[in-house]
Amino acid sequence: MLAIIWSSAIVGIDAVKVGVEVDVSGGLPKTIVVGLPDAAIQESK
After folding, report:
1. Is the pLDDT of residue 45 over 80?
2. 3 - beta bridge partners?
3. What SS3 string covers the chain?
């Protein structure tokens, strides 16, 4: 199942539209972050 959620993020003084895609399927749970994640995302793993 694929779902796309549209949200927004604050970058400086601007608001940026962000699309979050989620795919739920059978198997072992895992999280994959694509794009240019911040260093805080890498530390949270």
Report:
1. no
2. 22
3. CEEEEEEEEEECCEEEEEEEEEECCCCCCCCCCCCCCCHHHHHHC
